[in-house]
Amino acid sequence: MTVLLSDLRICYQFREQSERVVMSLSVPRIDATALLAGDPATQNWVAEAATGVGFMTIYNTPVSTAQAQAVLAAYHAFFALPVAEKAACDMAQTGSNRGWGAPGSERVDPDANSDYKQVYDCGVALAPDNPLAALPCYAPNIWPVQPADFRVVLQDYYRDATALALDLLCAVVNAAGLDGEYFRSQFDQPMALLRGNYYPTRPAWAGEKDFGIATHTDYGCLTLLATDGSPGLEVRTRGGGWIPVSAPPGEFVINFGEMLEMWTSGQIKATPHRVVGTAHERISVPLFFNPNHDANIAPFGSDRVIEARTHVETRYAETYLHLNAS
Ligand SMILES: O=C(O)CCC(=O)C(=O)O
Ligand SMILES: [Fe+2]
Predict the structure, then answer these.
(1) Is 230 part of any domain?
(2) Which atom, in ligand 1's list, is nearest to the CA of 227?
(3) How many Å lie between the centroid of ligand 1 and the Cα of residue 117?
(4) CA quadruple 74, 80, 81, 84: dihedral positive or negative?
(5) Among 195, 198, 230, 284, which residue has the most ligand 1 atoms within 8 Å of its CB, making it the best to mutate?
(6) How does pLDDT run across 205-225, given as a tens digit for each residue?
(7) pTM of the predicted model, to two decimals?
(8) Can you supply a Gene Ontology BP term from the record (predicted)?
(9) The complex's ipTM?
(10) Is residue 311 situated within a structural domain?
(11) What's the rounded mean pLDDT across residues 281-299?
(12) Is residue 4 part of a domain?
């Protein structure tokens, strides 16, 4: 058989393309310490993930497995409380998003029903005389009486997780060939939001428009997600399929949000994802790492101005039912 040079070239191009497709479908597992140390091979994988599938998982981080387990246990104990006790810190009584969000309190996809998950949200604790404390995006936290150690466990984790998220964000931005240090300067008072998601077993009544959390993209820059290790999270591929992603306690799922996609002119991808729900309950803990309220998230280098606070407040008003203006 004679093989023409042009056939070989087509073959090679096909192989190259299908390898690229396979790469963009898979979610890489990254050594965080190597990334933070600037290891070139790790940076290449991270750049590929950030600009391709938009998701990765990380291991070998400065946050210990024991700390992640303590955080998961604290949320587990909180969500197990009687409804009346959780209702004492219901965010629906407030004009912001701090405290408990009951099942059905958020609708992230206008084409789906409101999510059946419960949440508990907290943010940075500013001194009451800080003028920023008057903004809803820096609203005071509302702590439940029980579990007794809930507040201290979550506040310690908030401190450690925001420090890790900042280092990771800079490293990812650097890996993608952008100026990580500029991004660092936009996070000295981040509107970071720490959430506990509780998914009960998928309810018997759930139909095709009912989800633990329906298809959405995150609003911020980087999401650092701890989970109890059970499956449930699915990530949409460019072809419209869904791939499962999971990480045991001590490892994390990382993805990128709308603000970073906008800021980087689409280079870093905010990928849609969802949790349909399974026959097992599940807890996940995202830290939504949002920048300073006045950071300009318009495409880097453009002369437009889009304040980060405007973007998060618009998205919160669209999705939390109690903040929904319409
Ligand atoms: O529970 C998960 O794995 C994902 C949660 C999520 O996407 C979110 O809270 O934005
Ligand atoms: Fe999400």
Answers:
(1) yes
(2) 3
(3) 10
(4) positive
(5) 284
(6) 999 999 999 999 999 999 999
(7) 0.92
(8) ethylene biosynthetic process
(9) 0.99
(10) yes
(11) 98
(12) no
